[in-house]
Description:
The complex is a heterodimer. By secondary structure, chain A is α/β, with parallel strands linked by helices. Chain A contains eleven helices and twelve strands. In chain A, the strands form two sheets. A seven-stranded mixed beta sheet of chain A has the order 2-1-3-4-6-5-10, sandwiched between helices. By secondary structure, chain B is α/β, with parallel strands linked by helices. The two termini of chain B are about 20 Å apart.
Amino acid sequence: MRDAFVAALVSAAQSDEKILLVTGDLGFGTFDPFVKAIPERFINVGVAEQNMIGVSTGLGLEGYKVFAYSIGNFSTLRCLEQIRNDAAYHEANLTIIGSGGGFTYGALGMSHHATEDLSILRALPGITVVAPCDAWETTQAVTLLAAAKGVSYLRIEKQTPLRTGDLGIPFVLGKARRLREGRDITIIGSGGVLAHADSVAQRLAERGLSARVVSMHTLKPLDDAEILDALRDTRAILTIEENTILGGLGGAVAEVIAESGRSVPFRRLGMQDVYSSVVGSQDYLRQYYGMGIDAILDASLKLIARAA
Amino acid sequence: MDEPHGSNRLGWNTLDELALNIRRDAVQMTHLGKSSHIGSVLSIADILAVLYGSFLNVDPAFPRKPDRDRFILSKGHAGAGVYAALAECGFFPIDDLKRHYQDGSNLSGHVSHKGIAGVEFSTGSLGHGLPVATGMALAAKLSGLDHRVVALLSDGECDEGSNWEAFLFAGHNKLDNLVVVIDYNKLQSLKPVSETLALEPFADKLRAFNWAVEEVDGHDIEALQAVFGRIPFKTGMPSVVLAHTTKGKGISFMENSVLWHYRTAQGDEYTAAMAELADRQD
Lengths: 308, 282
């Protein structure tokens, strides 16, 4: 997913001379293709994220289209007020990249686990928040964000097994992608963890149950219509995100459901309002914190049972 | 209440008069709005007069002209001073200043750009202006443009680490189109700077970050003009004008008093303040 990001950015930058890549001293090796192709538009601001967003805002206000890169929490929480007051309030052209979304850097510890960024960025007015589920969605997102105005947050991970580009479903910012059709439950996910939902859908099929699987790659602006469709067409809704269940994807979907006046059995999977305190691989931590395949399958079966 | 000027025509001929008008406008604005930070505005009135009256390439007829110099007030709490300077220079009617701090107004206590001609950037939380100015200066270099970017910081604001990130970056990147003016009045929010987080040796610190520094009396109009005329002080280095100032300058009972970071002149105090400014005019 990260290589897809860089490849897409090189491609976009080669056709738009206003695109700049700014990093907070991270991305060893990753940015080689960009540096090789367009060295004069690669800017390392050093380990200084507040200044990174301030400088990027200044560049963005002067007509450049800036992609500012660091690890999830560093490019968001460390410099949150710069994102709010400087970039977003002034509508600078800036895409903030949060690398290592969720538990991508699982063994490195809680400082490197980005598990609240989606919720916090989503609360800020005027910011498009995107969490692609695979490399193909990442490529599409970068291409579209490079042409968009204003501030965006793009959360990326490393290895993701999905290959949703083969499905022929277009990628439009703010428009969910229905990866699998079903009637019994809709599983809505953001980010690479959506691969687990896809696996769960296959297991449900073995039991004669069908699950709709939706990639809600854009958390903001949210595709309300897709959620209302799920309410209408399927008997239960489950959200899955590698992020706190408070205010992120699950929170956003809950808001739409609650205000719709309709109801189906509903549950949010994700970090249950806790900090991670153990380490391990991304898959291990997903299981540990209740968003692995077993947890998704169990939650799905219980929701479907409640709907019966 | 009497207006400082009967019309929107420019009511000053010299930079001294412009500085006096900024002071008078700001005292009236903070009086009407019952707002704070008048001491901080008076501290930079002469600097603002020199910037807007002679140094900055800005044009009230074309506030967004591409080759304008960019000016960011990073100590956003002194926004009344910038609004006054802009109005005095014809960016919008002086009468509009009366809306400062009022219900529904966009002339917020901390400087805001939305709907206000001539304000480049909104601030209020300290430590934001310089990184953004640094990005603007870098953009000008990348684009081959020769306008300047000026950020006005307070001394207390230099407690914020984000400024030092930007000082490092701008020095490293040799942004000699970037100018920082520091309003060094030696008083911050609760106590003197020296008793809060000492900045001395301040000029040496900045030089150690690869900036060229000149110190000046921040209330001496001619000296300010002379120092701004030498910018950039050194090719390949960003410039700091370390301006020694007096908080509350121009109104005797406000000078060097932390109280006037917060207090607003009402009743006899307002009358006395306006009388002192009237005396200066005579």
